[in-house]
Specification:
Elements: H1 21-60, H2 71-103, H3 112-135
């Protein structure tokens, strides 16, 4: 039976470097901010698609049937675009606020932003669903 050779004693053992908790908190805050930015950009892009959907409806309405015009899709599209801009601006405020709170070690999560954003997005979704039902 062979014994395993141990490393020479004069070689320093590298210790695993543990990052500072401050650093990991800031990096998590930045990842969250970037996720909110992606959500804002996606909302803006979706608003653009909805606004252009009205143009498609107008082009398909060749028989002159009385359907809801694309005007409402433009309103919904602009609303989604504005909502996307609001998401990005509030995300920036939230990021800066959390950054300050992490630095001062007084972090308290804010509930207003997620609740307000969920309500606004749900309302726009309901309006969009009603619009789609009326144009079908």
């Amino acid at each position: 039976m062979q014994e395993k050779a141990s490393p020479p004693q004069d070689t320093p053992v590298e210790q695993k470097r543990v990052p500072d908790q401050h650093v990991t908190d800031h990096l998590a805050n930045e990842r969250t901010f970037l996720a909110w930015l992606r959500s804002g950009i996606a909302t803006i892009a979706f608003g653009f698609v909805v606004a252009r959907f009205g143009l498609l409806l107008r082009e398909l309405n060749v028989k002159g049937e009385s359907t809801i015009t694309g005007h409402y899709s433009s309103i919904i599209g602009v609303t989604l675009t504005v909502l996307g801009i609001i998401i990005m601006l509030v995300a920036l405020f939230n990021f800066l606020h959390k950054r300050h709170m992490i630095d001062t070690e007084q972090f308290r999560p804010m509930l207003v932003f997620p609740i307000l954003l969920t309500i606004l997005t749900a309302l726009v979704g309901v309006v969009l669903a009603i619009y789609l039902l009326l144009t079908a």
